[in-house]
C-alpha cells in the first residue's frame, strides 16, 4: 500500500538564480505483517498521509540533487525509521522545466516546460537486501524523415502492406535501465549521457544519418549504443510505439504528391519492445 501522485515544486537559490525541480512521487510499502488485511488491526500501518508528509519533509531538508538520490533518500528513511517496513519502492518523475534564455543569456527566474521526454526513476529495497535503482525516459517523440524502410518481410494471403525503401520513421520512445546494486554514481551526468546515446543511435551522423531497415533494428541499435558507451547500465529496456504516416493520394486533385503531404495514422499503431543486458548481469 502507499501514496500515489505526490506532486510538488522544490525551489531553491543558487546565487541570484532561482532553481526549480517539479516532481511526482509514488511510494509503496510492504509491512512485516499482514494483520491489517487479515484482522483489521492497524497498529503497524503508517498512514498514507504520513507517507506524503515524509516525502515533502525530505524534499525540504535534503533537496533534490537528482531524482535517483531523492528516491534513495525516501527508501533509506522508511527502512531506517520503521522496523515494521519489509519493502519499500519509490517512483519519481520530473516535469521537464528548462531555464529560459534571452539572446543566449540564462534568465534568473523564468522557465519553459519543454515536451522533450520525461525523466523518471525507481528505487526499491527489501530489508537486509541491496538497494536497486532504475532510471529512464518516457514520452520522448522522435522522427526521421528519410533513411528508413521496411522490406523483405514475411507475406501471405493476409498481407496488404507494400514494401517501402524510403519512409518516415516516427515513434514515442520509452526507455528504462537498471544500474544493478546502487553505487555512488553521478546520476544526472549518466542520465544526460544516455539520452545523448539514444538520440545518436536513432538519428545517425548529422550530415548523412543512418539507414534503419525496421523499428526493431532501431530499438536494438539504441540499446547496443547505450551499453557500449555507459558502463554503469546493466540492463536496458526500450519500447518504441510507432506512428505511421500515409502519403495523401492527390491524383483526383490533379497533383502528384511525392511524400510531401502525409497524414498520421493514429490507430491502430505498432509497437516494438526489447530488453537487453550484459551477460554477466544475467549470470549473477
Automatic annotation (TrEMBL):
Keywords: Oxidoreductase, Peroxisome, Purine metabolism. It comes from the Eukaryota. It catalyses: urate + O2 + H2O = 5-hydroxyisourate + H2O2. Its EC number is 1.7.3.3. It is found in: Peroxisome. GO terms for biological process: purine nucleobase catabolic process; urate catabolic process. SUPFAM superfamilies: Tetrahydrobiopterin biosynthesis enzymes-like. It is an enzyme of class 1 (oxidoreductase). O2 binds at residues 48, 242. One of its GO terms (cellular component) is peroxisome. The keyword Phosphoprotein does not apply. Pathway: Purine metabolism; urate degradation; (S)-allantoin from urate: step 1/3. InterPro entries: Uricase. Urate binds at residues 48-49, 150, 167, 216, 242. The keyword Nuclease does not apply. Pfam families: Uricase. NCBIfam families: urate_oxi. Belongs to the uricase family. Catalyzes the oxidation of uric acid to 5-hydroxyisourate, which is further processed to form (S)-allantoin. This is Uricase. It comes from Grantiella picta. The gene is Uox.
